[in-house]
Amino acid sequence: MKAIVIKPHVIGMEVKNIDLEEKLGKNQVRIKTLYTGVCGTDRGLVNNKLSFVRAPEGWDELILGHEAFGIIEEVGEDVTEFKKGDYVVPVVRRGCGVCLNCKIGRQDFCETGNFVEAGIRGKHGFMREEFVDDEMYLVRVPESIKDIAVLTEPLSNVVKAIDEVMQVQRRMVWNCPDGAYDCRNAYVVGTGPIGTFYSILLRTYGFNVFMLNRRDPSPAEEYVSKRINAQFVNTTKSEEMNKLPKADIIVDSSGFPSAFIPLLSKINKNGILVLFGTETGDKTPIDADLVSFMVENNIAVIGSVNANKMNFKESVNYLTMWKEKYGELLNRMITTVVSPEEANTILEKKPKGEIKSVIKWSD
């Protein structure tokens, strides 16, 4: 079977045939991979920038890929939720089996840290021609969104984080006088797929959204910002920054402290900072004055990673709903499509103008 593999803690990747025969269990299905998405985590693994990577037990190689979309080819005899021909996306993280969160399907809040993640740590991923998976880790996708279903996994992380924001902000009355959120402003730092999804989802809630980056928008980013009625801001231009209203929520999808810490002076009382992006090397000091400001103004900070099965289902619902309103936008988010043999062109470095790059495995 053709697959894209790495050797953990070694720079580089390889497209090769893997001798991996997966028997079909009673509660399992066999899935033909149609598309896999590529994100910063995949590039971090290929370029040996992530220390937590590990291969499955007994292997010295790891099959990449945690963003997948496929079609069921075969079902086990006890499978009840799916049939041959169903489109599905797999959940990425699998629980430790010990802590309560993992036992109730909230492995995104695993307390032991001994979970596995497909294509990242301890479990082969989905950048391969087919894979076998338990039905409990699969989410059905309607045929109507099969062209954008590969976006389900990144969106699921955003859905989870905004759910957390809404729960935390119940600490006070955060709605506007009319009960909505149209009087609230959101900065989204970073304009890749995650930043774009934060922007779309926050606009869906009614927030006034400002998409921030250290440069002018690409044509695709300009289209997205105008289509969702958000404002793109180049943070290196003082004239644009001076016009920014204060924020009620700042979402960082970049992972660079130097990008979001200077913005904290522009956050409103009782605001919230969401940290999602992960990077290495960037250093920006936090002084006591900033800490005092955050304390005195009730600023909440949450870090969010991964998603659970319900978040995946919500993501499918959002994509289905947005398909009618933002169909062209969602298709434009997929800026690069390559074959497995060309995967190095999007896995080793980020293509110019990228929002989302994907690998096409089959029609």
Automatic annotation (TrEMBL):
UniProt EC number: 1.1.1.47
Pfam family of the protein (one): ADH_N
GO aspect biological process, one term: protein tetramerization
Binding residue positions for NADP(+): T191, G192, P193, I194, N213, R214, R215, F276, G277, T278, S304, V305, N306, K350
Enzyme class of the recorded protein, top EC level: oxidoreductase
UniProt cofactor(s): Zn(2+)
Gene3D superfamilies registered for this protein in UniProt: Medium-chain alcohol dehydrogenases, catalytic domain, NAD(P)-binding Rossmann-like Domain
Top-rank lineage group of the source organism: Archaea
CDD domains: glucose_DH (cd08230)
UniProt keyword list: Carbohydrate metabolism, Metal-binding, NAD, NADP, Nucleotide-binding, Oxidoreductase, Zinc
Amino acids binding substrate: T41, E117, E153, N157, N306
Molecular function (Gene Ontology), one example: D-glucose binding
InterPro entries: ADH-like_N (IPR013154), ADH_Zn_CS (IPR002328), Glc_1-DH_arc (IPR026583), Glu_dehyd_C (IPR031640), GroES-like_sf (IPR011032), NAD(P)-bd_dom_sf (IPR036291), Zn_alcohol_dh (IPR050129)
Stretches assigned to the Glucose dehydrogenase C-terminal domain: 147-360
Domain Alcohol dehydrogenase-like N-terminal: 25-143
Substrates-to-products reaction catalysed: D-glucose + NAD(+) = D-glucono-1,5-lactone + NADH + H(+); D-glucose + NADP(+) = D-glucono-1,5-lactone + NADPH + H(+)
Family: Belongs to the zinc-containing alcohol dehydrogenase family. Glucose 1-dehydrogenase subfamily.
Main function: Catalyzes the NAD(P)(+)-dependent oxidation of D-glucose to D-gluconate via gluconolactone. Can utilize both NAD(+) and NADP(+) as electron acceptor. Is involved in the degradation of glucose through a non-phosphorylative variant of the Entner-Doudoroff pathway.
Protein name per Swiss-Prot or TrEMBL: Glucose 1-dehydrogenase
Organism: Acidianus manzaensis
